Amino acid sequence: MERAQIHRVSVADQVASVLRQRILTGELRPGTPLQEVPLSASLGVSRNTMREATRILSLEGLLKRSIHRGVAVSQLSLKDVQEIYHLRRMLEIPAVLAAKANQSDVLPEMQNALEGYERAVGDCDWGRAVSFDLQFHSLLIRFHRNRRLESFYQRVIGELRMGMVLVDRGHDDPGGLIPVHRKMYQLLAAGKLKPCAAVLAQHLDDSESRLSRVMNGQMSQRNTQLETLT
Amino acid sequence: MERAQIHRVSVADQVASVLRQRILTGELRPGTPLQEVPLSASLGVSRNTMREATRILSLEGLLKRSIHRGVAVSQLSLKDVQEIYHLRRMLEIPAVLAAKANQSDVLPEMQNALEGYERAVGDCDWGRAVSFDLQFHSLLIRFHRNRRLESFYQRVIGELRMGMVLVDRGHDDPGGLIPVHRKMYQLLAAGKLKPCAAVLAQHLDDSESRLSRVMNGQMSQRNTQLETLT
DNA sequence: AGAATTCAATTGTTCAACACTTGACATTGT
DNA sequence: ACAATGTCAAGTGTTGAACAATTGAATTCT
Q: Is any atom of nucleic acid chain C found less than 7 Å from the CB of residue B8?
């Protein structure tokens, strides 16, 4: 057991991490209600600790709390997706334009994310691919050199990811986005910021419309299911 | 007792609100340690509830949590101020530029904040003046039409406010900023967005340098005090 | 059927206890 | 003197059990 790292954070934080993981990987799907007693028992912690963990995640936006009605995994609406992509455009594009040559410590990490992305696509591991994709974009925000903005963006990306794992199956063309990311990286490394921003803008537009389309399909599908039930 | 409103939120949330108020008004100064037992006793709640409240506020950035060492009111560094003003420039200026004529529901609220600001200055109520000042700027963000951004900005402004109440006494020229805000409002109402953005940019520069200067003074003052003690 | 009423399940909150960590103080050995 | 070590009290982290409050659904009544 590595105590040096694990015992540095409280149990509540660890529980929050576990649940965050389960939500972000899609193991806990949006809308899933979380009951305190069974969950805390299954993780071997007390109810109070579990409450602190859910408090953390609800403030992060991953869980939604209704008083006396418990918590449930948050569910992204189309409006949420719209809002998040609005944010992405607002923050990622200026980030690229703000990229200076001397801030080169980000580039290796981006290359790393890019390679991980390609490997994941090669392994047909769609969940991991989404992770690396979003990590790549999160790294863009680093060019702003602003910790508060980074942590905020991390949360936003987390919410978006929760929505993306929903539509993992039957997603069209998992590896089709590799060239776009590779091109962005190359333009960035070459200091061609404006062309890079243009590619990024187009990519974000495409990405949003694709996700919106899929979610719309799922929604109408869900609606017809409901109609069938009634 | 007003049950209709109070009983809608949990006790933990109410406690968090009380503490938030105390921090933002400067009643609890930065650096102040908060002990669970006395605090929870004084508010008539249990330790667990108090812990949930401090959890909330630490995730909002108002409290800082050190494991096994308790929580304390966060303390802004000069670097934090720099970072926050970077964010303000990044978000407020594009917000002004994004202000469309049809989004006029924000203007009345801005006028309201403006008038409150002027009244507070007239009453020499510096704390209230800061509130209205920051509320005015928060309203600018509404032009982005993005809930996530608004709530994020609210938190950032909260942190900044915590730093500003620190320097309330002996602040130079409390009412000197009225004309600037009034001018921004007028330009905004007239649809002259670029001039408004220019005024705003200048105002932010001034505001940052003023705050930095005062904080620097307080810091060296505190240091000399410490040196005197040793 | 529809409204009112019980009722069980679940969350919200409290309380008391104990384990663990920390920082300060006291002790020891040199 | 002084540094390393040991002790200790105070405070946080965590637990488990209890009770109050609320909700949603089943049940009863008209």
A: no
